[in-house]
Design brief:
CATH class of chain A: Mainly Alpha
Radius of gyration of chain A: 17 Å
CATH architecture of chain A: Orthogonal Bundle
Distance between the termini of chain A: 43 Å
Structural class of chain A: mainly alpha
Helix content of chain A: over 70%
Number of domains of chain A: 1
Oligomer: homodimer
Shape of chain A: elongated
Strand content of chain A: under 5%
Order of helices and strands of chain A: HHHHHHHHH
Chain lengths: 174, 174
DNA sequence: GTCTATAATTTGATAGAC
DNA sequence: GTCTATCAAATTATAGAC
């Protein structure tokens, strides 16, 4: 049995990943969970607080998943498989990717948590590539950009094939 | 002297590129132009009609700019410079990139125009790379994804340096 | 072509009962 | 912790005067 807070976070994640920060209301979110919007406000006072918390939570979940991935060059392929699976399951954009696109017009706390997500990702991949790349940090940034852009393009085109095409030679960026 | 329609399109482009489809209202848009929201509705009956038209218009403008770019491999570097300049001037995401991220929850006509933008871009770059790549279409898709993802990452991180890092070895994708 | 006025609905958020 | 009820503001959109 999952707590109400967890169910709110799960529903909010789905909503943001499909439609962005401004693309859904507290009422829609509450309906997803099976409660009323006032009950959502009981757990998260404002939309800003909810999405900032969600983004930090997403970063934590993501970091946990990273812990189980292989090290070295193989980790890049595992990143690719992770992103692809999210697309294939219909989960929408990466949460931080969606918020990153909108970030200039988002509340500060949300933009800040989004920034921290990418800092974490860049750090993880930079560490990973330290022995495989002359410029590990630059390679890490290029790979993350490629994955986010491939997701975006696949959604825009309505075809997961675009993700596969865009990332097939991902390791050339190392 | 620009027409009211052109000023509406210009303001709408800026709004969508910063905040997305749901991130602004007709009243804000009208204020940008210096008119009332009812006057915006006179030119574009609905938000869907406005943004669908805007996206088709953006595709046309983009295609015109492409006409002045060099051919062959040098065109890839010119693409990169184009995208970078937009970021540097504070123009936000690529319009189609922003709408592509949100596309699953957008009105059909808007999603369709967004798809057509990327079809056009992929076709242009595929033609360009025909003599320089064994898989010109796949290379084209990879390059476009890289550029869109680099914009997204630069915005999320608040640093144009991330765009430069992500795209420095863009030609490796050819 | 632009305006004022307004309709009908939705939004984020709060008060207070249970 | 959830609800009903409600608020004030904002939203997309329309009617009709000028």
């Amino acid at each position: 049995m999952t707590s109400t807070v967890d169910r709110i976070l799960e529903a909010a994640e789905a909503r943001v990943r499909q439609a962005g920060y401004h693309g859904f209301s507290f009422r829609e979110l509450a309906a997803d969970v099976g409660i009323k919007s006032a009950s959502v406000h009981h757990h998260f006072p404002t939309k800003e607080a909810l999405i900032a918390h969600l983004t930090a939570h997403y970063r934590g979940k993501f970091k946990e998943e990273l812990a189980s991935l292989p090290v070295g060059r193989a980790r890049v392929a595992a990143y690719r498989a992770m992103f692809r699976e999210q697309l294939e399951l219909g989960f929408g954009m990466c949460l931080a990717g969606m918020l990153g696109a909108e970030s200039e017009e988002l509340p500060d706390s949300v933009a800040e948590e989004t920034r921290r997500f990418f800092d974490m990702l860049v750090a993880d991949l930079t560490d990973t590539l330290e022995n495989d790349s002359g410029e590990p940090r630059r390679a890490a940034i290029a790979i993350i950009a490629q994955l986010e852009g491939a997701m975006l393009l696949a959604r825009a085109s309505g075809s997961i094939k675009h993700f596969d095409d865009a990332t097939e030679r991902l390791e050339k960026l190392i």
